Structure formats: structure tokens, C-alpha cells
Amino acid sequence: MAQVPPLPIGPAGVPGAVPDQLSVETTVQQERDLAQPGSAKADEFGAAPELGFWRLAVIRFLHHRVATGALIILAIIVLSAIVVPIITGDLYRIQDYRHPFKPPFQSFQHLFGTDDLGRDELARLLRGARVSIMVGVLAVVGYLLIGGTLGALAGYYGGWLDNALMRFTDIIISAPFLLVVIAITAATGGVRLTTVIIVIAATGWYEIGRLMRAQFLVLREQEFVQAARALGASNARIIVRHILPNALAPIIVSATLGVSGIILLEAALGFLGYSIPPPEPSWGNMLQNFEQYLLDDQAYLVVFPATALVITALCINLIGDGIRDALDPRQR
Amino acid sequence: MVAATIAILVAACGNTAPSSETPKNGGTLIWALDSDATTLNPFVASTLPEFRVISFLFPNLYAGDKNLNVVPDLADGMPSVSSDGLVWTVKLKKNAKWSDGTPITADDVLATQKIQGDPKLDTDYSYDWSKLKTIEKVDANTVKYTLTQPFAPFLASNLVGYVAPAEVYGKLDPAKIRDDPVSKAPTVFGGAYKLDKWIPGQEFDLSVNPNYYNGRPHYDKVIGKVITDATAAANALINGDVAWHPSLGESGAGGISKAKKSSNVQVHTYQDLGYIDFRMNTRKGHIFDNVLTRQALASVLDKPSIVQAATQGAGAPLWGDIVPASWAYDANSVVKYPLDVNKAKSLMQQAGWTIGSDGVATRPNPTGSGTQKFVGKIRVRAGKPDRLKAAEIISDQVKQIGMQLTPEPTDFKVFYPPIQKGQFDVFIAGFSLTLEPDDYSTAHSSQLQPEHHEGQNWTGYSNPQLDSLIDQERSTVKATDAETKAARKAIFNQIEKIISGDVQTYMLWADVSSMGWTTNVGDVVAGSGDNTIYYDSNNNPASRAQWYSKSGK
Fold it and tell me: Which letter does DSSP use for residue B189 in this model?
């Protein structure tokens, strides 16, 4: 594991363990140990630096005050988005359409007021958070699966495969996103959350794909990869066990920032009426009538979802920045 | 006596600010259009902004007045109709001239009809001259139409409309008329104004037509500015950047109330000829195939409060398919279903539906074995928040009687094809009447689509009694327009009773529109349906020629 530099502390209490001087034999041993995680040997030697790297990153991240603060706020948002709707149940869809637009902060029953159909705004906001965050996270998982796989294959094997996959990426980049959404909506006969997630994932993975390819292009030429190959490790093993862990840092940053991008994208789609259908709320479709509300003194119906959107996206971006700083090898 | 006179005066003026000054010539009227035109060729035009610009440029044979009555414009008096209702004779004003100084004659009327009736005409608008047998020029100012059968809608559907100069358009090939340069830059005008220039996407510059047959309009220039954003257009009116905004209602309740608060703006709110309804597929085997089921739906919905919540006051609850703005409307002729949940439940039972443990109604499958669940989708056009709100409320309310209907917002481009194939449960759509209230195309069984090739009776509803009433109403032609209307209205009342009683379609609301103008514009007489619908139904340019600028600017 030559690429991992010496660390000041090791998890097994071996400060300054220096893996640089490992002989070929130890590397082979290390290979075997890695195959059997949990063995004593692995704890002492081989895996120690790797664990240390991530642990160090965590420590560095926690020292980043802004990022930690953002993480706490985001955790609160995510937790309440998960827990509160379970408690309040159908509250988000219970209408009182004869008495809509109850103003916010007037009663505990409707702390954030009610919307145009008399539904509790707070319950909708949290339910909407669920949709927005779920779309963000699942679509990024899609990015990682599609972009990660294709990028890794293109970068590792190179040649005609790389060429073909990169041309395919070019096609995806030039696909007009909104038209694709409308076309798929038309073809599947209506908007569904799964459609939205799939479309976003299928059209937005190229950034991670290119990043992954670039990482693999660099890493496949490194000595440790050549060593693994010389030792007879299979391509799959080299990709998954050797290159991937080392390529992860920029991917994690990109994926984190991708989540906020997708949340905003979903909001834009919802605003245009191409996201999850009613009565299910998302922050985007809650903003759908915003112009009318702004003119109509019901500005709180704009302010709440917009603020939630901004805060969430900002928190995720700050966390992404924090992770980037924590994982940046130059800052060591 | 004096008080009574004042009262009558005020009542007669309606929305007009009684002006003490005499109108003067001069100034520029700047007004807002919500989108650009694609053509200024009257034969090709099909959108509201296009018709709005064209109404300044071309004369109308007949037009609609502020109460939506048909009145003569280029025609000299109402048409005289033969006692058998087959021969309609129209006289033209003798001194009418085109902008190039040549007289407007019967030849122009004949040429216009010939192009409109040409099956090869390349247009998005539908012209129906199928009831016309012959059209003849009696003399330079008299046209005689002979019909194949007595046809009452002929006046409002065929005689209300523009006349184009034969000299220019008569020479064109109707199949290629759309791409002719004259479609972008008309050369000869007969309306109150002439086109100076059209800056695509921005504005239409018009200047006064001194030859206008109704007398010189007061404004020297008219500039139509394209402002696509509804809020921006409302603000432009409030700031005085535009002096007239015919579709202020598009900016929503917020924009209207903001305009009303401004001391520089006058707002006129009125019911127009559009309506929104909840149109069910009543074909055998579909969930709404039984009249009792549809009546149950009507009984479980509290229409006035649904309409209020969905439109914020921009809609008036409606029960039949004739809107209150129409002369054929009679509030007492319709069957209303007040909110009565228990009645709705028992109607569902009578229709054979039982509510299961999951809260969803089921019945034995009428077209096969097994059972059918009351599950369906409400198609709504995306980007129409008032309709979507109505769909959401209805979807929530009908759960009480075991109906599971899910709103499904759909893009306009893909909205109609499944409906035209009869593959839908329910859709919420907007329809617009013209000056002619005839509901042949949406209710007569000969207009069933897809069963017959064309027509707009997508519900699948077919009722011989209704068919014969519609046939009867269409063929009732008396000597005068007033007599014809009186006779037809009695038949319309029976038609409305059937449509509302059978819930052929569940009507939601009649559109309420708003237009606004600045206080600098004098002598605006605002009525029903002004400028909200296609100009052949309304949008009387003659009345707009009376407007003037108080400041002279």
C-alpha cells in the first residue's frame, strides 16, 4: 500500500508504523490478510494505514467547524424527515379546503400555517423533505452505480471499450434533460417518483463517470497495481480491492455535491409539474404557485419550502467542502 | 324624477366612468399581449393573441357586443331571413373602404367565404360551412346565402367573423396561404388600424386607418407589447407601462387585487364564455357508466366551496354546460345536486357498488368475470393549478363513497390523444363556447369520438332524447334574431335539464376573467366576455375605436 503515506497514529496503537519498507513477502501476506478481515495480523499491519486514513479524514472533518455544523443541521433535517411523518401519519394530506391559508405561528395545531387546501404546512414540509432527500440520495446511488461502473471499466481497460463508453457519455451529456423527462413521462403515462429518480440518474451520471475514469487511468499505472497484477490478482480483484478504495475520495466529494444538485433539480421539476404527483408533496411542487402567493400575501407558503431547500442544499454543499478538505492528500 | 334619471344613467353606464369631456384624437394606446403571434393572416390564425392583433386590422361582418349579442359591424343591419329559414340576405355598409381606398364589396365577402370553405386551406382553425348550399352576390353591397337546411347557429358561427380583401387573398393558393409573405406582413387593411411593423417577440406597431368605415378611431397609434410573464404584465399595467391589459386575470387573484388597489388602474371582472368540467368516461364497463354513480359523485361534492377553494374567486359554480354570460343561460333550468353524503352512499349501493374493507368500492365486473374496483385517474393538464386543486379536493372527498380517483397531471402535448381514443376514466378540461351556445359537438351522439371520426363528445354519452332536442334547437330559425333566441332558449332549457340531471359531465365552474386599463384611457365600455375569447365571437373593435387618451399621449 505504497500510496498511503506514513501516519502519526495507528489504530492498533503502533504509532508511526511504516509500511514503506514491507518486503514482497509481507505484501503477499497482506494480500491474504485483506482477504480475511478481522485476523490479528491485518489489524497490526496491513489494514492499519488504510483505516488510519479514513479515521484521520474523520478527525480532520470534525475539526472543520462549518462542515460539522452543517452536518448537525442536516442530521436534524433528515431525522425529522424520517421520524415526524411516521408520527403525524396522514396529516400532510388532510384537507380543510373550506378554510385554507391559516397564517403561521398563530397556533400550535398548525405551527407553520396551512396551505391553499388547508393542509398543515409543517407536515407537508417534512413529508416533502423525505421526497426531496430520498430523490437526492437514490439518484446519487444511481450516479455511482452507472457512472462508477462505466467510468471504472473505461479507465481500467482503456482501448476500444474506453472509446465506446466515452462516446456514449458524450451522447448522454448532449441529451436535453427536460425533453427526456417529458418524453419518458409521456411514454409511461404519468409522473411517478421512481420515474423521476431513474431519469435523473440515467441522465446525470456522466460527471462521476468521467471522474472515475480519470482516477482509474492514473491509478492503473501505479506500482501497487502492477505489483498486484504480477502476483496474479484478477482484473476484478484489482479493480474492486486495489484501485477503487484509492479512487473513492474525489468520487465521494462529487457524489455529496451531487445530492444537493439533484434536490434542486427535483425542485425545478416539481415547480414545472414534472415531479411526484399530488397529494404527495415535494419542496418543488410546494413552490409551484409561488408567484401567485407572493402577490397574494401568502408569502409564507413560498418562504418555508424555499428556505428548507436553500438550507438543505447549503448544508450538503458545506459538508461536501468539508469532506473534500478532509480527503485532500495535499492538506496532510 | 331627477334621482330616477341619475339611477338609470348610472345603471346604463355600468363600468364606464361617465366622462364629462369630449373624446379627442391623438395619443398611443400601449397594451399587453401574453404571447407573440405566429401569423397575421386571418385565415391561418388560431390563437388568442393572433386574433387580438388581427381584430384591429380587419373588418368584421358581424361582431359581439358587450352583452354578447350579435350586432352588425361591416353589415348594414341584421340579416333578413326567409320564412323557411333557408335564405339569409346580408347588406353591407355602402361607404366602407379598404385602407388603399378601394370599396369593400360583396366580392370580398364571397372571396373570404370561398377561402374559408376550401378543404385545402392550410389552417389550424376550423371553419364549418357544411350547411351552406350557395353564396351569391346580388349587387355590390348585398350577399345572399342559401342553406341546405334551417340552421340557427349560422348567424353567430358563420356570419360573425372577419372579411379579408379579395384583391390580396383571393389570388393566393389556400394550400400555401400560411407561408405567403402577406401572412407576416399584411398589406391592405379594413379595420380601425394599419400594421406599421411587427417586431417578432416584442411588439406590434399599428397606426390609425383614416378610411375606417366606423369613423376615425381616437388613438393615433396602438402598440401591442408581448409580455409573456403574467406577473410582469400585471406590474406593467400598474406602473403605467401599458394602458390596457386584456388578460389581467392570468396573473391570478394576487395580480388582480394588486391592480385593484392601484389608483391608476380600473379593473373589470366578468364571466366569460369558458368553462371547466370534470368529464367522465360513461362507456359501458367504465367506472362511471351508470347515471346513479355519476349522481353519487355530484352529491358527495360541495361544488360552491370546491370552486371557491380551487379558483380563489376566479370561477363561478356551474351546473349545466351553458355559462351565465350566454343569452341561453337560465339558472332555473338546471338540476343541482346539493351536498348530501348519505344520498351519495345510497346511490352508490343502488348502482351496485359495495365498499370493501380497504375503503374502495367494488362491483361484479360488467364486462367479464370477477370484480371491478372503483379505481381511476383524473387527468389534469400540467401547469393549471386551479384545475389541479379541484382534482385534489375531489379526489379526497370521493373517498367517502369508495371512489379511489388519483389526480394525474399530464403535459398538454400528450393530454388529448388517449382521450380521443376513449382510453381514460376522467379528465378535467376547459372548453369555450362562442357567441353560439350550441352544444352539438360535445353532447350529440353523432359527435362521439372515437366511435365516429370527428367530434368532441368524448364522454361516450348518448341519449336519443337529447339528440332530438339538439337537432330541434339548431333548426329553429325565426324572422328576427330575438324571436329565434326566445324559441331556442326554451329548448336549451330542456337540454340543460338532461345534461345536468344525468350528469353527462360534472360541471365545475364558469371562468371569471379580468381586464384592466389605466385611468388615462377614456370611454371604455366593459361588458361580458370582452376580449377574452377569439375575436370572431366577441372582441368588438368598433367599441374599442371609441377609446381615447385623456392626456393626449
Answer: -
CB B299, CB B347: distance < 8 Å: yes
The stretch A166-187 carries a mean pLDDT of: 83
CATH of span B3-186+519-549: 3.90.76.10
Smallest Cβ–Cβ distance between B389 and the set A116, A190, A191 belongs to A116
Q: Does A289 touch chain B (CB under 8 A)?
A: yes
Is there a contact between A54 and A299 (Cβ–Cβ < 8 Å)? no
Q: What pLDDT sits at residue B497?
A: 96
Residue A5 banded pLDDT, cuts 50, 70, 90: very low
Q: Which of B510, B507, B519 is nearest to B547 (CA)?
A: B519
DSSP SS3 for B164: coil
- Do A294 and B254 count as a contact with CB atoms less than 8 A apart? yes
Give me the residue label for grid cell 329553429.
Answer: B476
- Find, among A112, A61, A49, A36, the residue nearest to A300 by Cα: A112
Residue B90 has pLDDT above 80, yes or no: yes
Please report the sign of the dihedral spanned by the C-alpha atoms of residue A206, residue A210, residue A212, residue A213: positive
pLDDT at A1: 41
Determine the pLDDT at residue A182. Answer: 72
Question: Under a CB-based contact definition with an 8 Å cutoff, are residues B34 and B233 in contact?
Answer: yes
Q: What is the pLDDT of residue B2?
A: 41
Q: Note the helical H segments in A64-104.
A: 65-88
Measure the CA–CA gap between B240 and B118, rounded to whole angstroms: 45
Strands B375-381, B404-410: parallel, antiparallel or unpaired by DSSP? parallel
State how far the Cα of A230 lies from the Cα of A224, in Å rounded to an integer: 10
What is the reported pLDDT for B74? Answer: 93
CB-based contacts of B517, cutoff 8 Å, min separation 6: B237, B243, B244, B245, B265, B266, B524
Torsion angle (degrees, nearest 10) of CA B90, B93, B98, B99? -150
User: CATH 3.10.105.10 spans which residues of chain B?
Assistant: 273-510
Give the sign of the dihedral formed by CA A175, CA A176, CA A179, CA A184.
positive
B257 interface with A at CB cutoff 8 Å:
yes
- Residue B540: predicted pLDDT: 62
**Residues on chain B touching A273 (C-beta within 8 angstroms):** 382-383, 409, 411
Closest partner CB to B255 (pick from A274, A277, A295): A295
Rg over alpha carbons for chain B, rounded to the nearest Å, is 25
Confidence band of B229 (pLDDT split at 50, 70, 90) = confident
| d(CA A171, nearest CA chain B) in Å | 25
User: What pLDDT score was predicted for residue A177?
Assistant: 79
**Residue pair A318/A66 in contact by the 8 Å Cβ criterion:** yes
Nearest residue, CB atoms, B388 vs list A95, A278, A297:
A278
Do residue B309 and residue A291 have CB atoms under 8 angstroms apart? no
Q: Which amino acid is at A16?
A: G
Indicate the average pLDDT of chain B: 88
Report the length, in residues, of chain B: 553
Considering only residues B408 and B426, tell me which one the structure prediction assigns the higher pLDDT. B426
For residue B414, give Cα distances in angstroms to A67, A185, B346, B411.
45, 9, 37, 6
List Cβ neighbours of B326 (8 Å cut-off, separation of 6 or more).
B68, B273, B433, B437
Dist CA B68 CA B72 (whole Å):
12
- Ranges of CATH 3.90.76.10 domains, chain B: 3-186+519-549
Radius of gyration for chain A, computed over Cα atoms and rounded to the nearest angstrom:
24
Between B254, B395, B414, which is nearest A296 by CB? B254
Q: What is the ipTM of this complex?
A: 0.72
Between CA B495 and CA B225 the distance in angstroms is: 43
B426 vs A: CB within 8 A = no
Please indicate whether, in this complex, the C-beta atoms of A291 and B257 are within 8 angstroms of each other. no
Q: Which CATH architecture has domain B273-510?
A: Roll (3.10)
- Pair B387, B314: CB distance under 8 Å: no
Alpha-carbon distance A271 to nearest alpha carbon in chain B (angstroms)? 9
